[in-house]
Amino acid sequence: MHVAIAGNIGAGKTTLTNLLAKHFNWEAQLEDVVDNPYLDDFYNQMERWSFNLQVYFLNSRFRQVSQIRESGKDIIQDRTIYEDAHIFAPNLHAMGLMTNRDFENYKSLFELMEGFVAGPDLLIYLRSSIPNLVSQIHKRGRDYENSISIDYLSRLNERYEAWIHGYNKGNLLVIDVDNMDFVANPEDLGFIINKIDAEINGLF
């Protein structure tokens, strides 16, 4: 069983991944933020480091997905390989923060990798408004995220919505998280768990 959580920066992916892993007794595969050698540089100088960062994430997630399939375990993954390729890299390119040459190189690499990976059995998309994302980002207080602009988040949100609208890799569950607090409010977490149970029961 491979479940993945998708969503913009600050949507609550990592928190929900950990809560669901605990509830369902799944193994959590988290995004490599702590050990990522490019994140600080990227947020300080996006144009210079965008390609390096995206290739690092692509490599990291390709390895993750390969291990998930080989392990035979029930795993919940924080963010998918598709989000980098369909949202983050094209957004950097559109904003002039990744050159045409680098973007074409990146796309070619992703298309090669995509032939070797399968989509998750269930994708959970956390839909959030910009004010909610901004509030969550400030709340967690990561230094390198202080420079993220509202324009950048808005562009990402638009791309997320377009991607989800055409998503065809497997089962999809969309959850609006604006008025949810699945940490402090057990009912909110219970609501999500019930939705997931219904999806999983439909899979088997």
Automatic annotation (TrEMBL):
Q: Which residues form a coiled coil?
A: none
GO MF terms held by the record = kinase activity
Q: Where is the Deoxynucleoside kinase domain?
A: 4-198
Under Pfam families, the record lists: dNK (PF01712)
Q: Which InterPro entries does the entry mention?
A: DCK/DGK (IPR002624), Deoxyribonucleoside_kinase (IPR050566), DNK_dom (IPR031314), P-loop_NTPase (IPR027417)
Q: Which domain of life is it from?
A: Bacteria
Keyword annotations for this protein, in alphabetical order, are:
Kinase, Transferase
Identification of the protein by name: Deoxynucleoside kinase
